[in-house]
Amino acid sequence: MAVLVLVLLSALAILSPPSEAKLYRNFYQKTCPRFDQIMQDTTTNKQINSPSTAAATLRLFFHDCLLNGCDGSILISSTAFNTAERDADINLSLPGDAFDVIVRAKTALELACPNVVSCADILAVATRNLVTMVGGPYYNVYLGRKDGFVSKSSTVEGNLPKPTMNMSQIIQIFASRGFSVQQMVALSGAHTIGFSHCKEFISGIYNYSKVAKSDPQYNQRFASALQSACADYKNNPTLSVFNDIMTPNKFDNLYFQNLPKGLALLKSDHALNSDPRTKPFVQMYAADQKMFFQAFAQAMEKLSNYGVKSGKAGEIRRRCDAIN
């Protein structure tokens, strides 16, 4: 009987799908001993010289991980034979500083330990380091990801949250990746740093006077200020506004406090505060920054482990913008 049970268990093990790749905190301890120091030096220097790097890299990380997992596919450049993810419409506004800090880190690591550290691991650690630098919570990043082989712009549409989506659509995107509504709201707190381009919220502020009584999402003075700031957006599409106008360069819970005051930019931001599924968590994080930080750190750790590649499913790229 014991032998039969052992045979059945072995058969089930063979038939079962492979488990998530195992990642380790000290993955590069022997193969690249200076990994942590190089990453810290690179991210610190870049953030000091370009203060928008933290928000830019955080957004880049989201756009990488939410589409087919954290495999560095967002970093790949298009070729004559393939239009990559980074050239999909929603990714065209990803800031150059985010790509630059990854290139700098990869260059330094290739000199120290050639063909050892993946671009996916670099992006994950750079994001954590930069979030911490601007006041956000520290969280563990487990290492050993491989870089993916596939990056196609055609796979992006509908798989990344857009500010024009309704809350059900956004919740579904996260739910399909195993994230609860509460975790989705916590991750939305990333909007406490960074900015949004005027074209992403312009329709709401210019229609404000027509809908103010029935749909008072924007503080009226705030809407007027946004109209002035974005007045020339058609001629200058790079015009943008800080997501959190109170403490734009500090990672804190002011983003959540701003929502009920009508001081948010995007339609999706307003929906967080009005939808009964998400509003309780907005109120919770607005009232308790420590609770927000704990939830954000846990959700980021989970996201950084989502869909990682291992073994022959990936590689260690020599350059982050091209498959070997």
Automatic annotation (TrEMBL):
One of its GO terms (biological process) is hydrogen peroxide catabolic process. Ca(2+) 2 binds at T192, D244, T247, D252. CDD domains: secretory_peroxidase (cd00693). Heme b binds at H191. It is found in: Secreted. Disulfide bonds join C32-C113, C65-C70, C119-C320, C198-C230. Binds 2 calcium ions per subunit. Binds 1 heme b (iron(II)-protoporphyrin IX) group per subunit. Substrate binds at P161. Residues 22-324 form the Plant heme peroxidase family profile domain. It catalyses: 2 a phenolic donor + H2O2 = 2 a phenolic radical donor + 2 H2O. It holds the Pfam family peroxidase. GO terms for cellular component: extracellular region. Its EC number is 1.11.1.7. Gene3D superfamilies: 1.10.520.10, Peroxidase, domain 2. It is an enzyme of class 1 (oxidoreductase). The active site is at H63. InterPro entries: Haem_peroxidase, Haem_peroxidase_sf, Peroxidase_pln, Peroxidases_AS, Secretory_peroxidase. Belongs to the peroxidase family. Classical plant (class III) peroxidase subfamily. This is Peroxidase. It comes from Rhamnella rubrinervis.
